């Protein structure tokens, strides 16, 4: 029981540490953005799947999306129907990074 509790605590701490390191990286250099793939894995795979195609809870197949980065940013920030609004969960930099990452799933040509 204790072991279970310990490992649960450690993973939460690890997550916070990783987040803090990512934030520090961004603010100190300005050049390195948060890791869009990490943000996606943590916040989006539950509905969209790791390749963007899962479509759980009515989620759109991101590989078929033709939305621009700006349109995606609006949806990720404000949510839409069953999609969670991430404006208060993620920083603007994390949203930018995850939107760019979502564009890598595209099997259609997406206007920037
Ligand atoms: C709770 C489930 C859920 C989670 C978590 C979720 N989404 Fe969605 N997403 C949806 C649903 C449902 C839609 C379709 C909304 C609609 O148009 O009705 C959607 C639509 C989208 C669209 C628009 C696609 C299109 O072509 O219309 C994008 C882009 C998107 N999600 C990106 C993300 C990103 C990036 C994340 C993580 C930060 C995320 N989603 C997390 C459920 C989710």
Question: What descriptors fit this protein?
Answer:
112 residues, mainly alpha, Cytochrome Bc1 Complex, Chain D, domain 2, 2 domains, 5 helices, globular, binds heme C
Outline of the structure:
By secondary structure, the chain is mostly helical. Helices cover about 55% and strands about 0% of the residues.
Give a written overview of the molecule.
The chain has 112 residues and is mostly helical. The chain has 5 helices and no strands. The radius of gyration is 16 Å and the shape is globular. The protein binds heme C. Heme C binds next to helix 3, helix 4 and helix 5. The site of heme C (HEC) has 23 residues, from helix 3, helix 4 and helix 5.
SSE blueprint and pairings:
Layout: H1 2-29, H2 36-43, H3 45-48, H4 69-78, H5 92-103
């Amino acid at each position: 029981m204790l072991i279970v509790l310990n490992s649960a605590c450690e993973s939460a701490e690890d997550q916070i540490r990783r987040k803090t390191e990512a934030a520090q990286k961004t603010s100190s250099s300005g050049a390195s953005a948060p890791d869009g793939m990490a943000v996606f894995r943590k916040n989006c795979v539950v509905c969209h799947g790791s390749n963007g195609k899962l479509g759980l809870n009515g989620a759109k197949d991101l590989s078929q999306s033709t939305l621009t980065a700006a349109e995606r940013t609006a949806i990720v920030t404000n949510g839409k129907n069953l999609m969670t609004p991430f404006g208060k969960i993620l920083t603007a930099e994390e949203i930018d990074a995850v939107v760019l990452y979502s564009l890598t799933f595209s099997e259609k040509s997406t206007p920037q």
